[in-house]
Amino acid sequence: MDMSSEPDDSGGHCSTADSDGEVAEEIAIVSFERKLETAREIEAELADRYASIDILEYHGEIFEEYWGEYDCFVGLMASGIAMRKTAHLLDDKWEDPAICVVDEELTWAIPITGGHHGANQVAQDLATMGAVPAMTTASEAAGKQGVESRAKAMDTHVVNGDSTVKTNLAVLDENLGPVARLEGPRAVLVGDDVTVLKRNADDGIVLGTGSVSGASKEAFLAAWDQALARTDYGVGDVEFVGTATRKEDEDGLLEAAQERDLGVVVFDKETLLEHEGPTPSKSKELIGWPGVSEASAIAGGAEQELVLEKISYENEVTVAIGR
């Protein structure tokens, strides 16, 4: 996800119903009696990823009975059943619960409604049990990060939901532009094609992270722990992990971030050069990029200042902390 800290074109790449940003916290697994064992397996696998997971035995009015009480229903059933039993309940995509169906063999996880508001998230989690996430939301189908996904990565929520139709079209056309970070007090006038994201926490830190190619998940986790141990902050204080666009496909980084439930925000070269840190980096001489860890920590922080300058772990991963 690109993000700029300035309101110009130079930058880079469950809660309330109208502000999820792809977050689901309270889940209900709806299952026929004969499939309850599978439902319990799903509950056990996903238990530590959600605030609560309940198992509801299916009957004809089960969705109507519990509509609005959960962020997402996981239907352990044919998609046609879930569609017919919920169609008359659907009203507003920002307020309706998400629905994801999965077959008994855990072959497919299919978001039906609320893809950006929990169903895609649940489908991806079910992939750890072998299910293939069949996501059809346009941005995800094209392999791009929609605005709601960006909001989740940055620990923010969408304020004006209707705007995402236009901004997600811009994502598909690759002309959305940077996410401008504005700190107040300030008044901002926007049009209906500008999506406004509001931070979920008043303050927090950014784990600026660089690495050699192919660094392992374990190296990233150890590096972050080592860096945090040198401060008064913990994992719970982290807003997101910041890195460079050239590192956005590092498997170890993405796996480590997923394990810690952290979003990853990537910055383009121009943004990082504008926020270069104090520690010299050989990469600037070799390829023209500044040190990724310090620059992304500074660029991502609300105050744009370093809490911890770059440290290195096993010559694989570098970490700096910004706020």
Largest sheet: 6 strands, mixed
Shape: globular
What's the count of strands? 13
CATH class of the largest domain: Alpha Beta
Q: Count of helical segments?
A: 12
Q: Which percent range fits the helix content? A: 25-40%
Query: How many domains?
Result: 2
Domain CobE/GbiG C-terminal: 205-321
InterPro entries: CbiG_hydrolase, CbiG_N, CobE/GbiG_C, CobE/GbiG_C_sf, GbiG_N_sf
Pfam family, one: CbiG_N
Keywords: Hydrolase
Describe the structure.
- Keywords: Hydrolase.
- Its EC number is 3.7.1.12.
- Residues 1-20 are annotated as: Disordered.
- This protein has a 6-stranded mixed sheet, with helices on both faces.
- It is globular and about 65 Å long.
- Helix 8 packs across helix 9 (251-259).
- The protein has helices at 36-46, 62-66, 79-86, 119-126, 138-141, 147-153, 164-172, 217-229, 251-259, 269-274, 282-287, 292-300; strands at residues 26-31, 52-57, 72-76, 98-102, 108-113, 132-133, 156-158, 197-199, 205-211, 238-244, 264-267, 306-313, 317-322.
- The chain is built from 12 helices and 13 strands.
- The chain is α/β, with parallel strands linked by helices.
- It has 2 domains: 26-139, 3-Layer(aba) Sandwich (Rossmann fold); 205-322, Nucleotidyltransferase, domain 5 (2-Layer Sandwich).
